Input
Amino acid sequence: MEGEFILAEVQLDNLVVKRESKSYVDSLHAILTHTGQFQGAKYLLSGYTGMAFKLSVHRRLLPMSVTAYGQWGEAHRPGIDNLGIFTIWDGGRTRHSTFDYYQLDAVQWVKRSLDEGKGVIYWIPEFGVIHGYDDDDCIFYLQDGSSKQPQILLYDNFGLNFTGFWYCQIFGEQIPIPKQDMLLESLRFAIEDWDIPYRLLPDQNIASGRLAYDVWVQALRSGDYDPSGATYLLESYCQSRNEIRMYLQDMQGIWDELDQAYSCYDQLGTLIHQMRGFMIQQEDKWTLELDAPDKLAQVLMEAKALEEQAVHFFRIISLNFPDRKRSTVPRWGAHSAR
Output
């Protein structure tokens, strides 16, 4: 249109991803603090969205265990809803015949989000943030927190990576939700994630929640596991359980049962200290000590018992309040996620 000004290049300043948590939480925190839609510490965001409670373990402890906690769109949406933020996401398999069309469309709506000053979550892998673009060179700028220098992504290569999956998510406006409501919903996320054994059916190589502990222990005791994956999984686990401990510590005094649940995670913190001691650094990489698997397996079973007890207290809290999201069936009936 005549007179319409189209930006050829955008880079969002002061949007910085720092790797500390699950890569999705790291990316989300960078975007929402940049837009002013979240002012709290990262462990609070991890708690409110329920991401801290997600635990998934591949039977061979592959590194992908950490991000294999479900169908990403459906796994992330409830947490973003709990923050009161409008979101749109898309993703799928790059082998699908329609991928080229989705790719062209996604490039345009990603640019629109950046024009509005909002970063975009993108599967690199793992998750990172698209924080700029340049139409002259047909490139996006993105970061995953591993380096201060941005990575370059050609528009033509959008969505292409060795995993065969693509995923992208943008964010809109926000409505206020009482903190106690967000807390209660996050505890219900924790209960669901603890109880559901398989999030990626029909595939049963990846277990979730309570069963994830058993699969993890079985792999360690059998010796049939990926060494680098075992270390990465343990690092991620220690971080997420520490986030839960800090999250519940901040929420003390709201409900007696929540204080009891915090006590469980505080005790788990002692076990985490032991687990971190099972790793040694070799050539700038962390790895498990030779005699660590058996010791780690034993400590993990103790951790499972503590987490089972904590979830029991979450259930008591949940039962004290109506849960319309899960007790109301729409008139068209219940259906499974696509």
The mean pLDDT is 93.
